[in-house]
Structures are given as C-alpha cells and as structure tokens.
Amino acid sequence: MEGDKGFKWGVVLGLALLGFSRSVGWALNKGLSFPLLSSYTESPLVKGTILALEGLIGIIIPPLLGYYSDTLRSKHGRRRPFVMMGGVLAGIAALFIYTAYALGIPLAWFALSLAFFYFSMHLYTAQYRALMPDTVESGQRGQASGIITLFEWAGNLFLFGLAGLLIAKAVAETGEKEGIQALAQTPYLKIPFLVTALFLIGAALFVYFVVREPESPEVEENESLGSYLKSIVENRDFLKFYTAQTLWWMSFEFIGVFLYGILAFILYGSAGEENIKAVTSLGLYLMALFNVTVLIGALPGGIIYDKLGRRLSIILGGVIFAIPLLWGWFITTKAEITIALGIAGVGWGILMAASYPVIGDLLTRFEKEAFTGRYYGFFEATRSLPVLLAGIIGGAVVQLAGNNYRVLFPLGAVLVLLAMPMVWMMKNLEAKGVER
After folding, report:
1. Which of 134, 186, 194, 240 places its Cα 20 to 30 Å from the Cα of 325?
2. Tens of pLDDT along 30-77?
3. CA dihedral of 72, 78, 80, 83, whole degrees rounded to 10
4. Structural domain that includes position 178
C-alpha cells in the first residue's frame, strides 16, 4: 500500500460485488433452508442443529485457510486463488441443495448438501475479508466498510425480494395458501438457486481476473499457528473484540435462524409445520425490510467510524439493535414485529459497518498488517461460532420453554448489551486524534 494513498474505488467496488454475491448465497440459506427443513421435521432442535453446521464449519475453515493464505506466495496472489475456488464450488453447491430437495432424498443427505454449501462458502471467507485491509489505508477503511456493507446487505435484500416475488406468483398460480409449499409445486423453486449460483461463480471469477492484490509484504518472522492463536488470548484488545462480536452475532442468529418459528408462534400461537409455511412470505418480507434498514444504517456507520470514533459507532449501533429486541417479548401483532425489525436493522447496519474495519486497524496499530488473513479468519470464526451456538442453544431453549420462540427476543438483547462494555474497555481501538 506504500505510495498509493488515494481511495481505491475499483478495488472496493470489486470487493463489494463479491460481498453482494456471498450475501445472496447466505440469504438463500437464511430464507429457504428452515422452511425446506420443516418438510422433513418439526423439531426445533433438529432443524437448529442442522443449520448450526454452518457455524461448526465456520469456526474451523476460515482461521486455518486464512493463516495459510498469509503464507502463500504465488503469481496469482495470496487471496484470489481461494476466492475463485470457493466461489465456483459454492455456486455448484447451491445447485446441489435444490437438486437434493427436488429429488426428495432423505433428511441426512439433504443436511449433507447444506454442509457442502457451508464448506464451500467458508473456503474463501477469510480471504474475502482480508482483501479490504490489504488494499485500503487505515483512515479510509470506515468508508470502504460502509460501501462493502451496503452491497452485502443489498445482496440479502435482492434474494429475499426475489424469493418473495416468486412465492407470490406461485400462490397465485396454484391457489395454495402456504408459500413454500406453493413454490415447491412450480418450476419457480429452482430460480433462486440458479441465480445464486450465477452470482457466486460470476463474482468470484470477476475478482480473480480483474482485481489485483498488492505485492505480498515481506515478513521477517512469521507467526506459527500456535503463536497466532496464543497471541489472540494474550492481546486483550483482540480478545475483547472477538468475544464481543461472538455475543452480538449470537443475538442476531437467535432471530435469523428461528425467525419463521418466532413469527408462527406470535401470530398463530404455535410453530407447527403448517404455521411455519404460512408465514414464509411474511418472513421473506420482513427479512427484506430488515435489510433495507441495514442499508440505511451502513453508510452513516462507516462515516461515524472514521470521523467520530470507533467506540461511539459500535456502541450506538449495538444499543439501537438491542432496544427493539427487548420490546420483542411484548409484541403481539404483525405491525409491531415489522416496526421492531425495521429499527433493529438500522442499529445492525451501523454495528456491521463499524465492526468490520476493527481488526485491520488493530493489526495496523500492532504492526501486523501482513497477517490479515489469519486474524480475519478468526474474525469470521467468531461470527460462525454464534451460528453453531444459536442453532443448538436457541433450539434447546425454545424446546425447554414449551416451544415458546418469543423468548429468543429478550435473550438476544441481553447478549448484545453484554458485548458493549467489552468494546468500551478496548485500549487501542481509537485512531490517533479520536481518543476516548
């Protein structure tokens, strides 16, 4: 990055396109996997455990391959080979999920197709994240993060909107009231999977052939895998941030994984298969709305991060996200759910834009910029661990509460509020001139 201080619009927009495609893939999983699994089982614990495979894979693959990408020396770069391989495999895996469901294979094999998708997506998670701090100066990372976050959540919005439109068409054509069941009776079910595959493969190839990485930095003394993991525990700022991120992502995943169950319980009093399928269209609409308000929060969140301070932007986003979740325990109507998730989305957008650059800035502060792959690999692991924990713990809590999905709202609020003091106590978070 030496000698190139201008904002790299081409690189940032290329990474934004890659983020858009990956979000389309994750939105496909969030929007359709739970309803499709409901065709196999009504158990919240079984469904949560299967969806938690994403978290299990995510806590293993990104830290290891992120570490390896730091050490890779090739004419194709350190990150781009992983991006191309992972994106192509993830696109193929999306097609496998549809094929598995369409063929009516047993639950175990359908779960395996989901696991293949999660594995492929995480092959290049750390490398995608590391490319931004690799190519953007520290003082400009908030703006870059805001743009990338905007595109990421636009990808979610695109897929949820597409799925909602297709479900509406399927319901009109079949007369079936249950959205996902109507979709399954038409050729429209394959469209989200085909579109997702196209974006994943296309964006990965675009970044591989068009975006150019900076030269690999010279590393006098490379960290061993053990030393790298040990340094995270020993450095209190890294440890506090990773712990805080685990908490606020678990809060998010409680809602993200079990949204259909929450809606069915609040609106119909139970989360049986018929009720879950009945709220599929509403769930996709609310996911789309949430993503719209995330977009509203993302760009200001990036600006606040660069201009007003790291702590302020993260804590502001966390508090705005948590307040509607506290209200969630008292919600009884569709309108109240809509308002709560809309407000929460603004807070989440600020939080996402403000938290993404933190690891890159800490590495700059501690002169470890050559190691972005491994530290962003661990960054992604602390985003994936909550999927594992939320799926299993959330499913178990709901089951112990008599299938009362509403309990996940206040539980999520408590977790994100617990994370805020950890961010405030970080000693090296602020940039020069923006001290606490």
Report:
1. 240
2. 878 878 888 888 777 788 788 888 888 988 898 888 888 877 777 777
3. 70
4. 9-209+229-424
